[in-house]
Design goal:
The chain is 44% helix and 17% strand. By secondary structure, the chain is α/β, with parallel strands linked by helices. The two termini are 19 Å apart.
Length: 444
């Protein structure tokens, strides 16, 4: 249902720019354009260069491109328009002020344009969240993943599962309506087969939950080693700026220092840790303890050694098969098992190090079809599985089978459908909407 209100907001970023975009949506969009002195409204989806006039004194505000969208054809599904004006802050402020003086317009709330697109059925919640991911994407693979998600693939899959459960539920309810009839045993077997298919598909998707979190928030890589191994120098070299303090004095790094990087398009957080050694310094002891904790919880560890800071048994004990053993500050091949020889100070071997990192972490190309789940998707899918498991346990119960109590079995499937529908916004999500749409800016 179209809203009775007409809203407006700046849709492009604030600040000086060549072009700014101001968006309007609602039944008074055309009237607002006419109030700004536009006498010849362009046809929908056609651009027209027009002079915008101040509503108070008729002075020229700017010369801008006007685009109109008929109801059902624009982003929000409502009658809407865009004003593409010059991006100077004073120009934008003057046009926004003129719109604000109109009686039938109001400034949009955060995410309200997207909320209207959802209410009009033009986007489901998964696509809306993908849109938020696209706006906040910082790396190339995050951008690709968000675009794939915004295409609605996950929503289509959720609805496919939901349709399967709906048909299964309908079959069970038919056995209730015709309880006096001789119901073929194959009916119950068919329902259970369909439910098992949904169960296995959801369980397979849930295996990507950890991957999804890493894709959004980045993989955490701890750089560990003895004091003076060159960990801080390596962090600075990879970040291409001075992040950590470097010094020939052992124990300079006392606390973990994090830096977010884009490595070949993938989001990565590098963590500079305190040098691991036995020490009587109370503060350094805390730093060493935190370094161990960081190393244990990281997705990957780079164990850095140097001729004057060799690998210790404590450090080796923290390493896992996919971790990297790197020798730093050496022009010669020192004996030992190392994956790479580099010079962080001279910048030698860093490209090879980045190649090794991206090969060893659990990276996947989002275009391969991997589905990125949010925390609420993960919970809803687990709730769905829980309801399905209750149905399956009934099929295994010789004393309380689906045949004996199809109404209870059908209720389990209805609960599963309800949980699935909360992902796409088809059922029970009113309490989530304000939280989801608050992620957007005013013009989105």
């Amino acid at each position: 249902m179209p809203s009775a209100d007409t809203i407006y907001a700046l849709a492009s970023a604030r600040g000086r720019a060549g072009v700014a975009v101001i968006r309007l949506s609602g039944p008074q969009s055309d009237a607002a354009l006419l109030s700004l002195g536009i006498t010849d409204l362009p046809l929908p989806r056609r651009t027209s260069l027009q002079k915008l006039l101040d509503t108070r004194d008729g002075s020229v505000l700017d010369e801008a491109l006007i685009i109109r969208f008929a109801e059902g054809s624009g982003f929000t599904g409502e009658q809407s328009a865009e004003i593409q004006c010059h991006g100077g802050p004073a120009v934008v402020a003057a046009i926004l002020k003129a719109l604000g003086n109109l009686p039938d317009l109001r400034l949009a709330d955060p995410g309200e344009f997207t909320r209207r697109a959802f209410d009009a059925g033009r986007l489901d919640l998964v696509q809306i969240e993908a849109l938020a991911d696209l706006v906040s994407s910082e790396t190339e693979v995050q951008r690709k993943a968000a675009l794939i998600q915004s295409d609605g693939a996950l929503g289509r899959l959720i609805r496919e599962w939901s349709d399967t459960l709906t048909k299964s539920c309908a079959l069970l309810e038919a056995t209730i309506d015709f309880a006096d009839e001789d119901i073929p045993e194959e009916t119950y077997d068919l329902v259970t087969e369909k439910v098992f298919h949904v169960k296995h598909s959801i369980a397979s998707m849930l295996k990507t939950a950890v991957f999804s979190e890493r894709f959004r928030n980045g993989w955490r890589i701890a750089v560990i080693g003895a004091p003076n191994a060159g960990k801080s120098s390596l962090i600075n070299a990879l970040a291409r700026r001075d992040i950590a303090i470097t010094s020939p004095i052992a124990g300079t790094t006392r606390d973990a220092i994090e830096v977010s990087l884009d490595l070949k398009g993938y989001p990565v957080t590098l963590i500079d840790t305190a040098g691991m050694r036995e020490t009587a310094d109370a503060i350094e002891t805390v730093g060493v303890s935190r370094a161990r904790q960081t190393a244990e919880t990281a997705d990957m560890r780079i164990a850095l050694s140097a001729h004057d800071a060799p690998m210790t048994d404590v450090i080796s004990g923290l390493l896992q098969p996919h971790d990297l053993r790197v020798m730093n500050k050496s022009d010669e091949r020192i004996s030992g098992t190392y994956d790479l020889y580099i010079s962080a100070q001279a910048g030698e071997g860093l490209d090879q190090l980045i190649d090794q990192i991206t090969k060893r972490l659990d990276f996947s190309d989002p275009s391969s079809g991997a589905v990125l789940l949010r925390e609420r998707h993960d919970k809803a899918l687990r709730d769905t599985l829980s309801a399905i498991e209750r149905y399956i346990s009934q099929t295994d119960d010789a004393h309380f089978s689906v045949r004996d109590a199809p109404e209870i079995a059908a209720e389990h499937l209805r609960e599963a459908r309800q949980a699935l529908g909360s992902i796409t916004g088809d059922t029970g999500v009113e309490q989530l909407l304000d939280v989801i749409f608050s992620e957007f800016c005013l013009g989105k």
